[in-house]
Amino acid sequence: MADTILLSSPHKHDGSTIRSIMFKVCMALLPGLLCNIWYFGPGVMWQCLYATVFALLTEAILLTVRKRDLRLFLGDGTAIVTAWLFALMISPLVPWWVSLTGISFGLVFAKHLYGGLGHNLFNPAATGYIFVLLCFPVIMNHWPVMRELSAGIDVISGATPLGDTQTRLAAMDMISEIQIGPLYGMFAGAGWEWVNLAYLAGGCWLVISGIISWRIPFGVAGGVFVVSTLFSLYNPDLYASPLFHLFSGGTMLGAFFIATDPVTASTTPRGKIIYGCLIGLIAFVLRTWGAYPDGIAFAVLIANAAVPLIDRYTRPNILGE
Amino acid sequence: MGLDQTKPGMNTQVTRQLHNFHGGLVFETYKDITSKIVAIQHPLPQKIILPLRQHIGIPAVPVVKIGDYVLKGQLIARADGYVSIPLHASTSGKVIDIGDYPVPHAGKAVATCIVIKPDGEERWADIEPTENFLSIDPKQLQEIIRSSGIAGLGGAGFPAHVKLNEGVVNVVDTLIINGVECEPYITCDDRLIREKAHYVVAGTRMIRHAVQARQCVIAVEEDMPEAYAALAQWIDDDIELIKVPTRYPSGGEKQLIQVITGKEVPSGGLAIHIGIVMHNVATAAAVYRAVTRGEPVISRYVTITGKVGTPRNLQVLLGTPVSDCLRACGYEHNENHRVIMGGPMMGIHINNPDIPVIKTTNCILVKEIQPIPAEMPCIRCGNCVDVCPIKLLPQQLYWHARSENLEETKKFHIFDCIECGCCSYVCPSHIPLVQYYRYAKTRIAAEERKREGADHARQRFMQRQHRLEEEAQEKLLPQVSTISESDSLIADPDIIKSYIEAAVARTRDKRHQSRITDLEDKDG
Ligand code: SF4
Ligand code: SF4
């Protein structure tokens, strides 16, 4: 007995693991995933499946090269979450090799070159997405037509509501004219609004179960809401409504799932809000004046780069300081 | 969030607004296991092992020799300087050894102890009660407390008289008597209050007189209704009795002060700097005995709990080996168990059952050894930030401690960390954060001593005792950490090295020997 290793206090743990957290994140993605499948067809599911396989393969190779414990790190579930987020950002029409390129780029360059789990500065899923978006813009912007609109015809590619709004605004149309089209639903893009609501529901569950902090999604949504309200009040013909912004494209997926990636997000209480707002703001700017229809992924990456600075200036005062 | 407290025993209801502290944890308390069972007197052990240092500060100096016959309550080691307290024999008998024995100190393997072989007579030394404490000078009362060897019996072991004296030098606004046992499993204070509420209340009044406090508060936890009721019987308008919400670590000094007064103890400062003195209920009871009977501290309540046959509280003579207490509660040594002195959050894992119960031992907990999940990289999830009661950034501290960036850890206030363990408890990556902090603290302390030179270091060292000593633990187990305070003043690394080697060898021999004697005992 005298030779037993002395163990440091505390001698108790709440039992949480990275794996259990990642499992819950996947669970929380399910409503959004199902909704996506409903509107865009089973292609979404295939994307998730490919992405998962590619991610695990890439991760396994990288871990082997870096001589890490394969079982331990492959089993942590982080690569699967990256894969799902990536798959849910891209169109179901995107061919597998694009998906493979994106996933492996994200994992190699954003994650493992920085030192692997816990060391990355940029979100791997967003990095992979942006990389393929820049390389294959045409492929990436082709979306299947919504279930309700396709009326019997299988899959026809078309634009997303965000893309449509952007092109037609450029063509001098007014928001009021644009948004009466069949692409638009009750308050945002047809179908998209439900997908976003589903992400919102899953995300709220994550907040309630304490997996993510409310501060980041609140910051993102708040940021988007405030600027879009200001602009749409200023000129409702040129700027889409705040609801449209909140519930179109990847807003909710970004707010609750991508921006909240703990490794790349700010860690201080005030910092989280600032970081979230920054994402919301940049996303709005990119959507409104940028070259691509959706700006969430770009916004997350830019905010990621600002995290060290944000954390530094928002350090909370300690007790008695 | 504030909770209204109604103060019983008053004609007009006075309410005190309670405050909240940041973070903390709410978990299963496991107090029912032992809280309902009356504490019994533990029988006289075969051997009494009394470490010269059972408090934070300088060890006491023996005033007896091997072979001397000592009486129960007799002074056997005198205080050495201000931050030191004397030591008394727990029972009558013969001093059979003065030497290095395993002691309960995180990371420290051995320290000098006086070993007494009880003669079974329990013959008391002459002790003298103090009549009417109110009529004597507060200073004199402090002297009595000091000479009774009272160290904070709550856990940290800060010499009681130092707090008292600081209290007189500074003006004391509030005296808080802490009956909040926030760690799971531990019920020794609960039992003490239930069984000796009168001692606690009377002792509180004495301490109050000694520090001349303007206000006086006794605090217990919400889940201690019996203790609350017991105290309520004895108190008057002069003392305020408060229930605080059950949340770990509400019994921590800084946290309890925050809950009760809303004030924050300044970073790096002491409670007295904001006019507050805090003592544990067990300290109050000990003061009562010291004053009314002249009895020094020779025993205490200890909770024996966890995987033992009959978990309960015991009244144990100081110096009683842990193995003795465990046996009394029907525990058979089991390879799959680990013995922890203290609670599950802050207790120390002890690897030698001969380690004695000392003044600060509140609990002996036996837990099953569970496989430790692999340590993963920090994913910056911030769970640790959310629970840290000191509002530190544990993950940043970890980052810098791990990369041995000691200057940075200081900037992130590593010395304000109370090692409550909340951060490690919630870390999904299972990083032993507290262990990293202890390591960094020890390194910093060692480096500072080295830099400042031996003389200066001694001074500094004494000042920093209350902050550092208890926390000092080397990450890599006993080898390095056997440096005891007087030895670590040697600045020459070679001397330290040879000392360590000698100490390690000594430890090994001692352990070996104790194992042999163990075997012999069993055989015989
Ligand atoms: S709880 Fe653990 S993993 Fe999370 S930020 Fe703190 S140290 Fe890192
Ligand atoms: S151990 Fe230290 S850093 Fe961790 S929660 Fe407690 S005070 Fe904060």
Helix and strand topology:
The complex is a heterodimer of chains A (321) and B (524).
Chain A (H helix, E strand, L loop, with lengths): L17 H23 L2 H23 L4 H5 L3 H12 L6 H16 L12 H12 L1 H4 L2 E2 L2 H4 L6 E2 L2 H10 L4 H4 L13 H17 L6 H20 L7 H5 L4 H8 L10 H21 L6 H18 L8
Antiparallel strand pairs in A: 1-2
Chain B lengths: L3 E3 L8 E3 L14 H4 L4 E2 L6 E4 L9 E2 L6 E2 L4 E4 L8 E2 L4 E13 L2 E11 L19 H10 L12 H10 L4 E6 L8 H24 L3 E7 L3 H10 L5 E5 L8 H9 L14 E5 H12 L6 E8 L5 E6 L4 H7 L8 E5 L6 E3 L12 E6 L14 H5 L6 H9 L3 H6 L10 H5 L6 H20 L1 H15 L9 H4 L11 H31 L1
Parallel strand pairs in B: 3-16, 11-12, 11-14, 12-13, 15-19
Antiparallel strand pairs in B: 1-2, 4-10, 5-7, 6-9, 7-8, 9-10, 15-16, 17-18, 17-19
Bound molecules: iron/sulfur cluster (SF4) (2 copies).
Could you please describe the fold and organization of this structure?
The complex is a heterodimer of chains A (321) and B (524). Chain A has 321 residues and is mainly alpha-helical. Chain A has one domain: Ammonium transporter fold, CATH 1.10.3430. In chain A, 63% of the residues lie in helices and 1% in strands. Chain A is built from 16 helices and 2 strands. Chain A has helices at residues 18-40, 43-65, 70-74, 78-89, 96-111, 124-135, 137-140, 147-150, 161-170, 175-178, 192-208, 215-234, 242-246, 251-258, 269-289, 296-313, and strands spanning 143-144, 157-158. In chain A, strands 1-2 form a two-stranded antiparallel sheet. The longest helix of chain A is centred in the first third of the chain and has 23 residues, at 18-40. Chain A starts with 17 loop residues before the first helix and ends in an 8-residue tail after the last helix. With 524 residues, chain B is an alpha/beta fold. In chain B, the strands form 5 sheets. Chain B has a 6-stranded mixed β-sheet with strand order 3-16-15-19-17-18, with helices on both faces. In chain B, a hairpin with an 8-residue loop joins strand 1 and strand 2. In chain B, helix 4 (188-211) packs across helix 7 (281-292). Mean pLDDT of chain B is 81; it is low at 1-13, 466-504, 506-511 and 513-524. Classes of the chains: A mainly alpha (321), B alpha/beta (524). At the A-B interface, helix 1 of A face helix 9, helix 12, helix 13 and helix 16 of B. The complex binds iron/sulfur cluster (2 copies). One iron/sulfur cluster binds next to helix 12 and helix 13 of chain B.
